[in-house]
Amino acid sequence: MTVRTDGLEGIIAGSSAICYIDGLGGKLRYRGIDIAALAEQATFEEVACLLWHDELPNRAQLDDLIARLSTERAIPAPVLQVLQMLPRTTNAMDALRTGVSLLASYDPDTPDMSLGAGQRKAVRLLAKIPTVVATWARLSAGKDPVEPVPGPVATAFLHGLNGAAPHPAAARALDVVLILQADHELNASTFASRVIAATLSDMHSAVVGGIGALRGPLHGGANQGVMQMLLDIGTPENAERWVLDKLAKHDRIMGFGHRVYKTADPRATVLREMARRLSQEAGHAEWFQMSQTVEAVMMREKKLNSNVDFFSATVYASLGIPVDLFTPIFALSRTSGWTAHILEQYRDNRLIRPRAEYVGHAERAYVPIERRG
Questions:
Q1: Model-level pTM?
Q2: What 3-state DSSP class applies to 228?
Q3: Tens digit of pLDDT for each residue in 190-239?
Q4: d(CA 93, CA 85)
Q5: Residue 38 lies in a domain
Q6: What is the pLDDT of residues 22-70, one digit of tens each?
Q7: Strand 19-22, strand 33-34: pairing
């Protein structure tokens, strides 16, 4: 007897040694290390090494990675020219998708499917994708792009976005968000990337597929929806009534519930305190106050916990990041996880080809066109 598996919920679709989720216990580990410990003590570059190589780097290895990322950060001139040609109204994720697709034509390792080439491509993508995002942000705002600077990803990205060195506290806050969003097992975009990689397509194609999946509002785009919700609510006093009205209309409230976690999302737990502190420092404490009310109402009315998208919106906004960049920043973080999964897929590849439960018509006879009504 066939069992309905809409959305593949609960279906094991493959094995991986990269990320472990305990949905009942609310635990998340990268290569066995708890996400809270990584967010508190590690850097994003350390996490990227961990995801790619199954080990945290020593000091020399970490310095080498940061140096390689710094060297590879600039994007080819033709890629910049194409970004300059795009309409300024282009969605930032569409600009990113276009930019990454073009990068494949200028990567010397694109056709090389060896492990070493794959690792070099992963570094280049993690270096260049933040530059594409920052460059598009400036172009779409009518500003000139700035030359990439050396250093860690978060610091270099904020410099590329704002044209000035960020405050160390802001860079560290973004670094923590990048760690929290680096990987999350077989989510929609990672699964899409692995399906593409399983055909032995190139790494850039697989990452472009991940970007396409992340663009959707039910995946990466949810954090933009959360911020728009807070802007629509306006003041903490309006929050409860706003949510109740939406629930009465059966409207979706972004940033709540998860297909895997049946308890609190451990990433949201880390981000909650960051959102409180950063919103106060930014002079927008009302964002966190509204979030608290919305969270309480959703638990009371729907028994739903907040997820990573809910508080990341306030964190991004408190750092002065425009709303349309929330999902592209998610993408630049998740590039570390996507490429780790792509490399893992290549190492022990089998074409991913599931079956579908057929629910259409039974056998029917062909009716000639002259006899059709």
A1: 0.93
A2: helix
A3: 999 999 999 999 999 999 999 999 998 888 888 888 999 999 999 999 99
A4: 16
A5: yes
A6: 988 889 999 999 999 999 999 999 999 999 999 999 999 999 999 999 9
A7: unpaired
Does residue 16 surpass a pLDDT of 80? Answer: yes
Residue 301: which CATH number? 1.10.230.10
Q: Residue 5: its pLDDT value, please?
A: 64
Rounded Cα–Cα distance for residues 289 and 285 (Å): 6
The H or E element containing residue 138 is helix 115-140
Number of alpha helices (DSSP H) and beta strands (DSSP E) in the chain: 16, 3
Tokens representing residue 331 in the block: 């993408």
State which residues form the domain around 268: 222-318
Catalytic residue flag (residue 22): no
User: Are 96 and 28 in the same domain?
Assistant: yes
Q: Which of 107, 109, 265, 309 is catalytic?
A: 309
- Inform me whether the pLDDT recorded for 3 exceeds 90: no
Q: Is residue 361 part of a domain?
A: no
3-class SS shares of the chain: helix, strand, coil, % to 5: 60, 5, 35
CA nearest neighbour of 50 among 61, 269, 349, 60: 61
Annotated catalytic, 250? no
Radius of gyration in angstroms for the set of CA atoms belonging to the chain, rounded to a whole number: 22
* Distant-in-sequence, close-in-space partners of 249: CB < 8 Å, separation ≥ 6: none
State the catalytic residue, choosing from 175, 258, 265, 341: 258
Number of residues in the chain? 373
